[in-house]
Design a protein that fits this description.
YefM-like fold; 77 residues
């Protein structure tokens, strides 16, 4: 999740909120390097996925192999 200083967030709040809504990826707002708030996309509790469709229920990580390294990944198979 991306971080952003509070002064930058204040200056570009509307643009940042549009970006969060469009990308569905939250942003952590920091003050002097410490996390202060988290801006996350709104998801209606009334909206339920259709049976058999779990796309909205899953979190997709960018790369699950790199943290282990190629050698460890092959060993874990």
């Amino acid at each position: 999740m991306e971080t952003m200083g509070i002064s930058q967030f204040k200056a570009h709040a509307l643009k940042v909120l549009d970006q969060v809504a469009k990308s569905q990826v939250g942003i952590i707002v920091t003050k002097r390097g410490k996390p202060l708030a988290q801006v996350i996309p709104y998801r209606s509790s009334e909206t339920k996925p259709e049976p058999g469709k779990l796309a909205d229920c899953l979190i997709f990580e960018k790369d699950i192999v790199t943290p282990l390294g190629d050698d460890m990944w092959d060993a874990c198979k």
